[in-house]
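Standup notes
- HV: blocked on the assembly model, inputs below
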Amino acid sequence: MAKTQADELAVVGKSLPKPDAMGKVSGQARFADDLMLPRMLFARILRSPLPHARIRQVDASRARAMPGVQAVLTGEDLPIKYGILPVSQDEEALCSEKVRYVGDPVAAVAATDEWIADAALEAIDVSFEALPSVMSIDEALAQPGEPIHPRGNVHKAVALEFGDTEEGLRSADHTREDVVFFEGNTHLPMEQHAAVAQYGQDGKLTVWSSTQTPHYVHRALGKVLELPMSRIRVIATPNGGGFGGKSDIFAHEIVAAKLAMVTGRPVKITLTREEVFYAHRGRHPVLMKVRTGFRRDGRITAMQFQSFLDGGGYGSYGVASTYYTGALQTATYAIPRYRFEGVRLFTNKPPCGPKRGHGTPQPRFALEVHLDKVADELGLDPVAIRRRNLVQPNSQTVNWLRITSCGLEACMDRVVADSRFLERRTAMPSGRGLGFAVSSYLSGAGTAIYWNDMPHSEVQVKVDRGGGVSVLCGAIDIGQGSDHILAAIVAEVLGVSLQDIQLTTADTDLTPIDLGSYSSRVTFMVGNAAIAAAQRVRQRLAEAAARMLHCESDELSFRGGQVGRRDHPGEAISFAQTVQAAEAGEGLISASGSYTPPKLAGPYKGSGVGPSPAYSFSAAVVEVECDPRTGEVRVPEVWIAHDIGRAINPVLVEGQVEGSVYMALGEALMEEQTFRIGVHKFPSMLEYKSPTTLEMPVVHTSLVESLDPEGPFGAKEAGQGPLLPVIPAIANAVYNALGVRIDEIPITPEKVLRALAQPSRRVGPKGVPRFAFPSPIQAARPPEWEGK
Amino acid sequence: MLRLPPLRYLRPTSVEAAAEAVAEHPGAMLIAGGTDLVPNLKRRQFDAPVLVSLRGIAGFDGIQGEPGRGMVIGAGATLDQVATHPALQTAYRALAQAAGFVSTPQIRHMGTIGGNLLVDPRCNYYNQSAAWRQAVGYCLKRDGDICLVARSSPRCWAVSSSDSAPVALALGAELTLRGAEGERRGAAADLYRDDGIVYTTKRADDVIVGIHLPAAPAMTSAYWKLRRRGSFDFPVLGAAVALDWADGMVRVARGALGAAGSRPVEVSHLLTPLVGRRPDDELIAQVAEAAEKPARPLDNTDFSHYWRKRMTRVLIERALRDACGLDPLAGRLTAQTRSGQAA
Ligand SMILES: Cc1cc2nc3c(=O)[nH]c(=O)nc-3n(C[C@H](O)[C@H](O)[C@H](O)COP(=O)(O)OP(=O)(O)OC[C@H]3O[C@@H](n4cnc5c(N)ncnc54)[C@H](O)[C@@H]3O)c2cc1C
Ligand code: SF4
């Protein structure tokens, strides 16, 4: 660690504008759709109008003959299948045999303008043989007609058990079972996906894409186009929002590349908003059953958790998503015996994948609502029951997650005190209510998407004799602030200002690897790699400065653009002079640093999903105001505390927290991907309802700094975790306000009114379908849990 | 990006020339702010080979007169102008409210009051791209032969989604239209037909020139809009009421519902129990219950139509309370208990 005392830090810990901010607000930032290359063609994709059908024939001859049309591609031009996970290579850039959802790509056109491309799509004749479609979990299990994929509609079924849960339930004083449903929703980034591709005369392909995962796109392009990766360059352009929606490999990226190769001209594809809804990879609809045993005092004896995921037409990240619906229950509560069963089904809808919180908001909703109900039955308050079960710092969960720093209790204390939750919840005026929930999330997945032993992040730092510092890294800023993290960390270690840093990011030709902006991994992993690289540079500069200042190199401090003796403040030389001295001595000063997460996976199959070098924690109290005549729910105020480890830039962390609150509010109260006669009901920004600024509550954000021992300067994640507690806290608040349980997300006015009129005062699923899960893998219990 | 179809754009400088231009070019349409027309054209909901703009006409956006004698709003006045006009805000409050509730500030600065009266009736099977409509098999309103909402229906039930239309009816507004064959004036109510496709009685070349608001020395009015969010959204239900007072008693009561059918639905005849009375909680609740009857929501907007139907009386009640100077939300818990018992 470079410096540990907060008071010593010059850049880290300060709220500063991020380097890309002015460019973005002034229109200077160049997004993928802003790119214009000479002789560029515009491409469009023809998509399936049917949810499930066999393709009999595609006849593009009329389209090919149209003036201005430069190329038409169909499935046979891109026969190699791909997928983000090595176990799910089930997608084709253009479908050749079958289509699996309305919007599945079938053909593509490159033309001299978009009008011609559109007209050409209409001239492509596709003959389909319609198949019965499967639009829900129940239908997928019932298997009417031909399955969506040859192996059947069950994509993945998993079962894990840690300790004898039946025994744990038997020995409980009290058990409770709940069944809840979480409807799917989508990311809704402001920027639609776009890609530009160019194939040079030198046989090299360049693809600019609005992607969160340039490295995975690089690999997939190599595979599908049968080009060596050394001849492909992927440049991730600034993402106008991603939220997980740009972390897969998309048909339009491959199609743009292929069209560029076929035509020899640059090709651009920008998806329409409607197509973004079809690209999807958003939140899975999940039906869940949770059964837990408790002692009289509220301590959990055992938990059994089942999830049924509605996956859509393809695998995508689905195997990981499935495991994630069972992985983090144990990261907030010390559950001594735990069983998880999960199954993901194929349906004829756009594929689901990772959205902020990837697979964990749904079970978090189930768990936190379940705990409130149990607390009620045991006569405990919502805070007390959680305190009884809190996970401890430096412990290991029963499913082998290593918990290091943990500010969960501090987060709870903070929001409970600030909102006066315990005093006020029993005295709320009618129609108003308070709800509480907590959560945890990973600071980066401990394993890569494809199995390998290489680092997850690498950074190169190079100094210029003028005092400038070049930082190169594969990380892509999706708005979360990774550019700032990189610059701030290097500036801190080398004692220069942010303005002295020149960033080059997310270009597979120029920058060393970073696996991508997903799983909340960037600050943690890139940050550690940046520290390592910057420290190596600093060491070499320090040696040169020490010779000039006649002292030992460890007596030097780097600060304010000066390198000086810590104990003799007057004796210093400028950073640039230091670089010149070092360069004169040994030539170019540059160094690299890498980060590989420790091997943390437990000794059982399926242990790869869940482990992370560190976990963030959050707690939230939400106040709601309900109109019992209309069922409308408004959220006037939210208190949220987040254990960030250390805030490298507090204002950016607060931005992530507030953005998470915003997104959670939309999911909890209105956003849903719904389908009607096989088609997305409203693929538009107007009719897919997500909150506006007017719905945004007052948010009181508190940052808890637990200084993680392995995080860069102690930092952990902020991008996803703070979303998690907000959704169940809203549900719990609605119960507090009106005494109704809406066990189904989103909580719409219709459902609230229905619950008010029902004797059970509840709206939600009645049960889970019958499904024969495999017999659970009986995982060894970590030593800490033996005998418990 | 969705592109507009290729088209000709004409920009006459007088109302007369505009009307003639439309009459001359088959299929031509008028365009004011374009905020309804342009997105619909991009989705190919209809064709317009020629657009005749009203934006080059000088003085088309004036707001004249005063409440004692009546006022005239030029059809080209933007929604923002209407929403922020001091005399409108007080004497014709429902209209200023309705204009102010439309969508977002950007749209209110482009969109006009004339265009607002003529919003193409909406349906979530229709306000979709051509590819989407192809996937569901098209419908009566464009390219198809059935109504996807009411499959056995011979007609289209697209929803009148204008915020100002029900208010125009409640206020007893009149409109001046100028067509290629001359000018005429009539009640706003007469502009609308109960059909989701041919939704007005006006000819393509008829330009709405002005909206005449009758003298309103002692009128109170209110517009309540139901929608998912506080911004952006079209109404899924609108309740406009206007009460004329004499000696603390209601002299005339008028009202209309928006988004409750393919045209604004007049409910004035159901408000007559208010006349000659000083409305209290009980009377308003009763009247609101009776006035919900004509609302006929179908499942083609945001929210379920059951819920929209159930909300009709709530919204009318709130609008009436508002126009009577009573707390619109008060008494809701007792009312809830009552409807709870009924259920
Ligand atoms: C995201 C979004 C949200 C919206 N929300 C709402 C809403 O909540 N409530 C609402 O009421 N509307 C809403 N609108 C629709 C629209 O913005 C407004 O109704 C606006 O007032 C339309 O006016 P305009 O001048 O833009 O009309 P245009 O789009 O120019 O025209 C609309 C129609 O009126 C005709 N027309 C226009 N002016 C005249 C005239 N003087 N004489 C004869 N014909 C004329 C045109 O030919 C066309 O048929 C929304 C639109 C969008 C894009
Ligand atoms: S109401 Fe029926 S006919 Fe009219 S637009 Fe909707 S689906 Fe089409």
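- HV (later): unblocked. The longest helix of chain A spans residues 522-549. The two ends of chain A are 37 Å apart (CA to CA).
- Next: hand off to the docking folks.
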